[in-house]
Structure formats: structure tokens, C-alpha cells
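Kindly inspect this one:
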Amino acid sequence: MAQVKHTYDTYAPPDIEFVRGEGARLFDNEGRDYLDCAAGIAVNSLGYAHPHLVETLKGQADGIWHLSNLYPIPAQKRLAERLCAATFADRVFFTNSGAEAMECAIKTARRYHYSNDAPERVKILTFEGAFHGRTLATIAAGGQEKYLEGFGEKTPGFISLPFGDEKALKAAVDGETAAILLEPIQGEGGIREFSGQFLRDLRELCDQEGILLIFDEVQTGIGRTGKLFAHQWFDVEPDIMASAKGLGGGFPVGACLAREEVAAPMVVGTHGSTFGGNPLAMAIGNAVLDVVLEDGFLDTVNAMATLFKQNLAEMVDTYPELLEDVRGNGLLMGMKAKVPNTDLIAAMREHGLLVAGAGDNVVRLVPPLIVNEEDVREVRNRMIAALNEVKNNLTQE
């Protein structure tokens, strides 16, 4: 008798059952190991079974899991203080996900202008290829038709512009513009980076026009690019920023960060979350920062990123019929494929290497930040085996 399925058919996972993880490796129910360069889509920042995270989770499990924000949560105050000390921000609102953090960012931007006698300023300018979440507002912000189709009229107030087109951006700015929103490096959009000069020009434009600058660092943050947040490479500060994914190291945690004057209009009753910022999530978030902010940790991330990029560049040179270029920064990397990226992803999985897809036919690699030299060497070996297989199959066709 066929097994009855009770979950939505919104995912199409391969026939693998993972039962255990350690460091950068996963193990299935048959004992086979896989090097994980997907990391739960850039979520498992410290890999699997990290001792400090496990100890923290077990300790908090004996305490309070949930209170709601009706009462003070000391660990929430501590995590907010640490995030603000390490960034441009003065205030933080905690959520359960990146999409929720983006919703808070959008509301914060519009509320700011409303409180400054400009309620007409509600438009958010975004860029083609963006991905900001799966809610009705965030799919409108992303502007991708494949995510908008079938859900009725697009939520108004979002204008999608050509990627990196400064001329089109300036032309779109008017008296109703509230903010400009972008990912410093588009993840789902194909590991596409905005240049440092573009980001600096963006900051200048926002200052000139009284527009807020919002960075979506849900995927690029918490050390993913070798700095705590990607924009810190360019000395460009936003007014509002969304973070999530790696912040919880595998536990659902999100955050919307903002400057004091921007966050000030978000007073009691304007926004809320039942689960956001609960004691269990805040304990884990603080534990992640304990590790990521430790002296030398991000130096190691950058060293491993250099090794990875050298290996990926070698792959592009060795397999020109399969691969076109290498993209990304830090441990957020991609290879644009000349064959369907799904073919490469499947072949790599068969050889014990887990990677993810991205737009523009890109194979995305976002390994845990704790990968070591041995892991990187093994990734190279497994990737070569997979690419050889795909190449041989092409030759035989």
C-alpha cells in the first residue's frame, strides 16, 4: 500500500534520511557521510552538534522556554546589546525568521516617514533577482514572477529595478519613496554582488533624498562573508537591517536592527511577535555570538574562504564545458553552470557532497563557518569525482 503523505507538496527532497550530524558532516540512516556545503541554506553557521550550542540548548531546556514579550527577557536584552555594539544599530526587534525580520524592516521604514508627517512615503525600491522572503509583502518586494504567480494581486508599494542600474534607480526616486532595499550579495538571485562603489553611492542618494537604506543580510550576515555583516566590508551603514539564518545556528532566530531615530516611532502596539525573542531562542543566539565574535574566528573563516575559492577557480578552469565562473565573498560562493545546475547538484550529492541551487543557473556553496582544511580538501575531491561523472555522461550523449 502506498504511503499516505500529509504534508504540502511544496518541496521535492531527495530520498535521503539524515540521522546525525557532526561538524560539517551529515550521516544518513545507512551510515554514509556527506560534506554539507548547503548548511540548511546558510543556517547551520556552526555546523552540527557544536559543543557550545548543545550545552546552551540543554541548559536552557531545564529553564524557561517561552514567556512572550509581555515580560522582560534578560537574554533578549543581552543579545540586543551585543548586536548593537557590533553594528550601526541602536535598537533590535527579534523575530523567528528572515521573512518576519523583513516585514518588521518594511513596517519600520514606512512608520518612520508616517511619524515625520510624510505618510505618502510608502514605496520601497528593490532590485531584480532579489529574494526577501515568502510572505505576501516580501514576495512583492522580491518581485520575482515565479513566487508571485497564483496569489492574487501583488502587494502594492514595491518597485523592482534592474540589478545595479543606478540610472534607473535615480529615475524611480520620487516624493513617495520610503526606502531602498537590497541584499549586498543576492543569494537566491545567483550569488550576485553589488559593488562597494554602488553601495556608497546608494548611501549618498538616500542621505540626499531623505530615504532610508535597508540591507537584507539574512543570508550574508553572522560571519558568512568573513565579517559579521557583509556591508562592513565597504564601510557603508544602513538605517535598517534584517538578520536571521546563521544567527540561530540552526534554531529559528531573526532580528530587525535599526538606528534610534528610525526605530523610535515603533511604539507599543505598532508591532509584535508571540514567539520572537523567547528565552530559548535568545540563549542560542547569544551562544552563536560567543563563538563568531571570538578573537580569530572570522580570520579563520576568511582563510577557509580563500582555499575554497582557489579550488572552485580550479574547477572552472578544469571543466570549461560545465562551469563558467566563480562568484561570491567569504563562505557564500557560487559557480555559474553551463549545464543545468540541478544535474551538478544531483551528481555532487551522489558523491557525498551537499550543495544548493541559486538563480542564474548557479550552484551555491554555503558551508558551515567551522569548516577546516581537511573538509575543504575533501570537498574538492568529491566535487572532482562528481564533475568527472557529469563530463563523461555528456561525452557519451
Q: What stands out?
A: DSSP finds 13 helices and 17 strands in the chain. The longest helix spans residues 373-396. The first strand starts at residue 18 and ends at 22.
